[in-house]
């Protein structure tokens, strides 16, 4: 599911903040465009929210101009009162939806979903929309980079589609190191050159892995990417979404303005946790924080890494504590994983271990969730039939 690009037209910063929060609280990923974008940015918004609460004539004129220049863009008008004449004027000016302030969240989200459905239908004959997967660690050392990198390699290998892994951690990210690649450029080069970004320039910034995976390597500065880079990070995801089918993000384990931009862009947020008390506690706090930010909670997936038969905390207890089922479990195999990391060769390209098989299964579920679910159901029915036959015998 690709992001909807949304623009909020208002002079009221608090209105913009609240509308942005509502836009991002649903199941559809939404990226907010800035009023003043870099020169050369030709992004056409999928959705524009226009504030007509104060100067109604000026607000209606804005809607008319938008409709004249962006014929396919969904325009939402927000007014102080739902007066029939004003609703009619807004619709005649070109608004698709009309809301009274404060906007009713349920109906507003319904309108956002309709906008997304219309855009997907319009692009049905084109290539499938880009998918953004964000991996976030419950704590340092949880194995977030290992899981994200191996997922990215498997996506590139299995789909043969354009896949990029982005190292978003500030200060010496390890994605390129784990893949045995020495990049010439980093994510900072991309963030500082968005004004001149095109396919050719982007291709120069990306390192290429032998699996076909593109790599946007991590920063080499401790303090960056930082708070001042958040807007550029959000724009970077829009650029990558246009050039790649899968965007995999190693967001580290710190909640900051840049990782929050990644969470808003995500189709799925994979929280990587270990079966120990500090990890589960931090995962619980992280899940709560994601909800507070207004990111759709249905995008969260819990990954249990380094699991073994001797769980310090049972999986059921973890699920109860987090309020989410465990989406996938990766076994503990220190020797195999450390050998792969030290050699710079991903697990899926080195051996036929159980953990490599789990990455294959996990990635196939991302590619074709329905197909994997159907296969699991068939196996379950087959097992039940075998049991019944044995019992009757």
Describe this structure in words.
With 393 residues, this protein is α/β, with parallel strands linked by helices. It contains 15 helices and 13 strands. Strands 8-9-7-10-6-11-12-13 form an 8-stranded mixed β-sheet, sandwiched between helices. It has a 5-stranded parallel β-sheet with strand order 2-1-3-4-5, sandwiched between helices. Strand 1, helix 1 and strand 2 form a beta-alpha-beta unit. The longest helix is centred in the C-terminal third of the chain and has 24 residues. It is globular, with a radius of gyration of 23 Å.
Strand and helix map with partners:
Layout: E1 4-9, H1 13-24, E2 30-32, E3 47-51, H2 56-69, E4 74-79, H3 84-93, E5 97-100, H4 105-122, E6 131-137, H5 144-159, E7 163-167, H6 175-178, H7 187-191, H8 199-205, E8 207-208, E9 214-216, H9 230-243, E10 246-250, H10 257-265, E11 268-273, H11 277-292, E12 300-307, H12 315-322, E13 326-331, H13 334-343, H14 354-367, H15 369-392
Parallel strand pairs: 1-2, 1-3, 3-4, 4-5, 6-10, 6-11, 7-9, 7-10, 11-12, 12-13
Antiparallel strand pairs: 8-9
Helix pairs in contact: 5-14, 9-10, 14-15
